[in-house]
Amino acid sequence: MPGASRPGRADPLAAGRFRRYRIPMPVFIPIDDPADPRLEPYRDIRERDLVGRQGRFIAEGETVLRVLAGQDRHRPLSVLIAPKRLEKLAPILDQLAGDVPVYLASQPVLDGIVGFELHRGILALAERAAPLAADDLLAGLPEKALVLVLVGISNHDNMGGLFRNAAGFGVDAVLLDPTCCDPLYRKAIRVSVGGVLRVPWARLDGDEDLIALLDRRGFTPVALSPAGETALLDLEPLTRPALLLGAEGPGLPEATLARCRTVSIPMAPGFDSLNVAVTAGIALHHLRAASSPT
Fold this sequence. Notes:
CATH architecture of the largest domain: 3-Layer(aba) Sandwich
Low-confidence stretches: 1-23
Distance between the termini: 62 Å
Number of domains: 2
Shape: elongated
Oligomer: single chain
Number of helices: 11
Structural class: alpha/beta
């Protein structure tokens, strides 16, 4: 019957506002009860963030959802949004597979599900891709490549900021040492504005020799340190630089610094350090610009 809703579709589709998008369209499911068992993965997400999600992760916000829907590594499983977001998000939701449910919950119901006031009103659940081996990731990079290596980064805001820089400056891959926090933690993904989902990354095994791995794959390890022997602006262009950054405070281990080109960013007298994400942005901009043709 003309104008009738399709089975499993929410009322907004009945008006035909989204018919210009490709088929199959997402399945829209209204939710009225915060205790609905289908929403279990979204329940009390702050507490669940602390204990992990058994191979899944939560993405939050419009920009992150757009990145998630447009990539093919991590598999979207469902979306939870406030109905007021539906029309604006329609082009993004249309990129999802037809079997991905889109749950629609009013703001009070949404807040009851997640356990706090969710201003953005946009969440998605996704399945983590199989982890990449660091050696395999480096082996597949182009002849000219830029790699970011993170050691001991335990703050999720910093992790997100570092991946945002990596995406913004065209980093080809990110390597994490075993002590780094999870880049797919909800807050890290949000701070990265989806950069974590864009840039390929791998975590080193506990017994893997980082510098030996970089050497074997033809990368020059460049370690940032306030006591670096070369000022960043004086560093010559490198074909395959690997920029190493340590946690704020302790920085990189002395044993690692001893095996790298060490570089500093000169600052005003009496001040010797910046936030690690800010530092990365400055250094990545220089390395990318130095390797680009003039």
